[in-house]
Amino acid sequence: MSIRKSTASARRRQGAELARSEAGVGIFGTVFGFLIFMVLLLFAVQVIIRLYATSTLTDVAIRAAQTVAQSPLLGGDVAQAEAAARQSLGSFGAAHVAFVWKQVDSHDVVLSVNATSPEFLPGLAGWSRISRTVTVRTEQFR
After folding, report:
1. CB atoms within 10 A of CB 101
2. Rounded Cα–Cα distance for residues 71 and 1 (Å)
3. CB atoms within 10 A of CB 37
4. How high is the pLDDT of residue 113?
5. Which of 113, 108, 106 is nearest to 130 (CA)?
6. What's CA 18's distance to the chain center, in Å?
């Protein structure tokens, strides 16, 4: 019996020494894994917000160009269409969007819209610029 007792106590001592020698090792892996997870999560949020901003900006630009193209007066509704577009974009449209009416004539209405999307992950400067150009044919009744 004394052999069993000494073997069991030796195993317990080895386990205790092993546990003490590896104390705090898991914290580095946990913190590193958490940081990688957060960076990937912020990148996914950045992609989703940019896609949403791009599609919303494109829709607003198309509606503004169609409003001007369907106007009975040539270029008469440019200011109203731009004001309606800015209003539908809300605070994002007031501060971060520039409308450039490149061509408003009897054939086409060309609108270029440039914007800066919100950033959640710094260092992706190329992703912040959104540029869309919309061309709509002017309809004339005969």
Report:
1. 17
2. 103
3. 10
4. 93
5. 113
6. 47
Are 94 and 83 within 8 A, CB to CB?
no
Residue 94 makes CB contacts below 8 A (sequence gap 6+) with: 86
According to DSSP, the residues that pair with 108 across neighbouring strands are 137
pLDDT tens track for 49-64: 889 989 999 999 999 9
DSSP conformation letters of 12-72: HHHHHHHHHHTTTHHHHHHHHHHHHHHHHHHHHHHHHHHHHHHHHHHHHHHHHHHHHHT-S
- Give residue 8's pLDDT: 56
Helix, strand, or coil here: 110?
strand
Residue given tokens 């607003």 in the structure block? 60
